[in-house]
Task: inverse folding
């Protein structure tokens, strides 16, 4: 269990590696899904295009949405875009950088599906078999327009009796497969060229802007993670304090009514003075909860965090969070002993 916890913490600390791994996993799942998928074109003039284009575009859309859902930065990006300005201004460059990072990872699996479908050619043949110009093929000269449309609709179904041994079907199917594979290889080459140019031309631009956006993008993600962890820690401590306060009050009420007896002597216990909850919590070193005594204060704390996050200025931060959530200790002078919990 400890090894699993260390493994999970490692992947939590390196979110970029996790996202790259998720992208590769989605791409591998895409290849497996497409290879195991049984493609059956309806071979009807009204439904061929709908079915072919649906299988060409609908699974990539679903994979794209899955990529957005699995990427933590997509939620962080939307929260950063929608949050009030408060004491911290918003940088649209950071949001654009996060958006480009999210889209690049989310587009990996859909592009794999589209390229596989185009290189295979079945979806393309099914979708565009009725759009072929009959004048390009000599075998359609003796057919009426209705017969031509019926024949073209049956092209994807090579086992159909109408087109089973027809050389025209093979010619149309070969023509559409060539177009599909040419489109697939063209898109692949275009993506490689774009990636190559982006890689080569990046040093030509201002690297300081790129580094700043990358740094603050990672900061926003890590800040949200630390806030969630600190909220869990704070909620656990606050619940512990409420439970202890409840049982302490119940003990005092039982003693005041004389209902609690000593199990050894069978006599009533003498009431013992109960100190305030702050003194009881002092022994457990929950100092960060001293100023938080009610649900309204916790709600106010959380709404303050959402409406006006603290400014990114460490020199001005002391004194702002006397009632804030605690996760890290203050910077102190050498020789000063640090407590377990301090305010941020």
Result:
């Amino acid at each position: 269990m400890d090894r699993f916890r260390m493994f999970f913490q490692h992947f939590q600390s390196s979110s970029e590696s996790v996202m790259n791994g998720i992208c590769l996993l989605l791409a591998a799942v895409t290849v497996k899904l497409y290879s195991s998928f049984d493609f059956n074109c309806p071979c009807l003039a009204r439904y061929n295009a709908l079915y072919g284009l649906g299988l060409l575009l609908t699974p990539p859309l679903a994979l794209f949405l899955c990529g957005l859902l699995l990427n933590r930065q997509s939620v962080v990006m939307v929260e950063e875009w929608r949050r009030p300005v408060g004491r911290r201004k918003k940088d649209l460059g950071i949001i654009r950088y996060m958006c480009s990072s999210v889209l690049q990872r989310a587009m990996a699996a859909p592009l794999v599906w589209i390229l596989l479908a185009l290189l295979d050619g079945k979806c393309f043949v099914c979708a565009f078999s009725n759009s072929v110009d009959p004048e390009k093929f000599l075998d359609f000269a003796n057919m009426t327009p209705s017969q031509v449309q019926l024949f073209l609709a049956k092209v994807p179904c090579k086992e159909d009796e109408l087109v089973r041994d027809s050389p025209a079907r093979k010619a149309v199917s070969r023509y559409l497969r060539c177009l599909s594979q040419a489109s697939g290889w063209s898109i692949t080459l275009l993506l490689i060229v774009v990636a190559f140019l982006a890689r080569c031309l990046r040093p030509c631009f201002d690297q300081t802007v790129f580094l700043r956006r990358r740094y603050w993008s990672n900061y926003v993600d890590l800040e949200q993670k630390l806030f969630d962890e600190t909220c869990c820690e704070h909620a656990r401590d606050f619940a512990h304090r409420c439970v202890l306060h409840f049982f302490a009050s119940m003990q005092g009420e039982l003693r005041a009514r004389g209902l609690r007896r000593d199990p050894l002597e069978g006599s009533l216990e003498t009431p013992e003075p109960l100190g305030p909850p702050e003194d009881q919590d002092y022994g457990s070193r929950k100092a960060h909860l001293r100023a938080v005594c009610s649900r309204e204060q916790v709600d106010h704390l959380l709404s303050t965090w959402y409406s006006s996050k603290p400014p990114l200025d460490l020199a001005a931060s002391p004194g702002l969070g006397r009632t804030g959530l605690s996760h890290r200790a203050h910077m102190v002078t050498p020789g000063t002993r640090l407590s377990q919990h301090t305010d941020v």
Remarks:
- Confidence is low (pLDDT under 50) at residues 262-285, 319-324, 326-344.
